[in-house]
Fold each of these.
Amino acid sequence: MNEFEISLQELSKLDIDDYYLIDIRDKISSSYGYIPGSLNIPNDQLYTNYDKYLDKRVVVYCKKGEISKDTVEFLREKGVNAWNLTGGYLAWLVENISLDKKEDEDKAYALEVERSLQKKFRKTIWSKFTKAIKDYELVKKGDKIAICISGGKDSMLMAKLFQELKKHNKIPFEVVFLVMDPGYSPENRQVIENNAKKLNIPITVFESDIFESVFNVEKSPCYLCARMRRGYLYSKAKELGCNKIALGHHYDDVIETILMGMLYGAQIQTMMPKLHSTNFEGMELIRPLYLIREDDIKKWRDYNSLYFIQCACKFTDTCSVIGGDTSSKRIEIKQLIAKLKETNPYVEGNIFKSVENVNLNTVIAYKKDGIKHSFLDNY
């Protein structure tokens, strides 16, 4: 153990009032899961506001305890009594996910999670899920859907929702809960498998070498990784006899994508609720969480004492490191929407509805099937 390191066991012996526990990951990473009682202060903010934490010990953590080492060194140079949490959030997560519950206890817990969807979260989650299924015609008779599970809060919720839909829906369809291991570390894979067991989700795991393939890619490795993952998922789903794959993108992803396209891509586009695959004939992608707010997903997670990770990449300490500009831009967009909401509480709904109310009579140009059309064509 390096100097100024503190283990989880040592931390547990301290009085919570005697130290600050600070999560230095970005807001997006922290939103997927955090150590209870910690403060989320991203690195850049902590570096400029460290003087607020001079009165007592500071314990810092990131995803795996690597980036936080440099933060501790910086803080100590500034006179802060700083310590690095060995292993970071991932070590805490592995230790705190119950591994010794009996099978009947796991089933009882899973039933409580399911009841919460039908009762406490019926209006905010279940009803919006079924509305998206109906309004966008995402599930049809005879479908076999691969529910793609990354291990985060969104995909795990989606899996539970589909289990409930199977119970209550009169339309016959099949599901496969598909997990692709693109080269997870043993700890990351253990977290995913333990959460699936805890939630009574019968996952099918297959492996690929995507992480190795993108490790040396300097420009947009996360983008390439996501594209490759989707290709592998389509291929495996088709091999298993599926005609659809389901991804866990939610309402907030949709409105952020709209604004990112406008502000950074100079285009108006949205994340579609479903689309046909161009490379895998007969396959379709659906997004059943399309109408569900991320804050409600977080409330479901916290209510059921669930803990997840955002990115299971074994090469990086936080997704923001490898994600680069894309990750920081999404954080900027989240902050922009939050700021706009202070003066206009309807701003999120208006962004979402804007792509449902496009008036082609007032659009200078648009693309259809890759062909650009101008208002001058019919002027």
Amino acid sequence: MSALIDLRSDTVTRPSPEMRRAMMEAEVGDDVYREDPTVNRLEQRAAEILGKEAAVFVPTGTMGNTMGIKVNTHHGQEVICEARAHVMDWELAMMAWFAGCLARPIRAEDGILRWSAIQDHLRPNGPNCAGTGCIVIENTHNMAGGAVTPIDVVEEICHEAHARGLRVHMDGARIFNAATALECSAAGIARHADTVMFCLSKGLGAPAGSLLCGRAADIAQARLYRKRLGGGMRQAGVLAAAGLIALEKMPARLHEDHSNAGHLAERISRIPGLRIDPKRVETNIVIFEVATDDLTPAAVSAKLKERGVLINPVGGARLRAVTHCDVTRENCGQAAGALEEILAATGLGK
């Protein structure tokens, strides 16, 4: 049987031979004591590359976002985010459970929060309202199909928020995809955000790990939250070694994933019974709709699996395909071909 074409997420990648060697040879120590030299190097490089004073290594993006929101808020405040934000829908309500904050979602059709929409939802402290404490920008926006927030939009949000004493956290799980699409540096995108989290295991191909970056004082506080959340990983240099390779080398190839995603989206747009605007695919995430009553997204996913292709439904009539370093242009064509077969079997396109 041929290998599966796994388009469920860019988290499914396998570490490269170079990463595996680095993990085997990693110099390690107890990171809770700040004695793991490989983790220390990773945190230093992450802070440098993101243009921040300090960084802390965490097991997951969810933990990093939770810590980022916590250091930017006080218990009982509101956090503004886009209505499909990962911090609200996919992180087990940690904003409420750990940070003690209420999400104030704002729907943006293209997934891009703008100050013109945010300003109408700001709430002052008062006898009846929980005041706004923080704004979260997700860049790229996962469930908006990898949408990229332009730098000028980020800067306006940060400028206006800071003028009102509010803080900004960036869920930059795929910030290097955003930087690739905008042809700029990750630091240029995150420059004015108070904290930014990015993942090594999405797009960059590392087996695990994320970084939270920001001011030194905020990151020192975040370390205490990491310990409370069970994120003290001891000899974590075996993971950080792969993370260093991911951080230093993998952003340079992300344009390949974007090109493959665009190719896949274009092929899907020509299949009767499926709906997507390929012009809206900016990065490595392709979200498309099943536009026929003859098939559900779950049925399409199951039939794709029978043909060796893994693509997950993501709610409503939608499915999501994510390109990554373990998926080739040929694989994308094969996935599109499988979709064509499935839809043709319903009588569409004949």
Amino acid sequence: MKTTWFKQMAGAVLAVLALGFSSAGLTQGLPAGAKAKYLEVNPVQPTEPGKVEVLEFFSYACSHCAVLEPLLTKWVKKLPSEAVVKYVPVAFNASMKPLQQLYYSLEALSRLDLHPKVFNAIHEEKKRLFTKPEIIAWVVAQGVDRAKFESVFDSFGVMSKAGRADQLVTSYKVQGTPAVAVAGRFLTSPSEAGGYQETLDVSESLIKQVLGK
């Protein structure tokens, strides 16, 4: 029964991802000979002033996000100082909400060192971390104080950030995860760019385009 539930969750995420994205936009700033492997966000979304804002839309339940995560971690370190990367946990339905709250709870407690471990627990160790009790049990096993975690999990701050994440998903018309938005103007993904590393390469080219480099 547990295996069936996990397969259904993974299947739902894959089905959403399969919707893909449509290509549009300029090719300026892309590698020589490359086609536009992103779409233009319409309308353009507001971003952090003075920075090139990069958003990664992800879900802990998404196996594709688990593959991209270590590549993204290395990639972020080599980006120009003008670029700021923010992570947006996606909840396409109510069953994904606890995982969304998990990310913001770890952020609130300054324990994002556990972020990659969540992917590993779900996709490698096959642990069920899809409900509040399951999540709390796992987090406590990682050395996080139970009382502190429970105090932030359903807090106003975490729920407000989760609500803002939902708004961003709608505004950017995100149909699947992972997806990367650049400067409020562009959106790409593995299905659009042609692969995981390609997603980051295209995103980096777009950052340089915005910066005029």
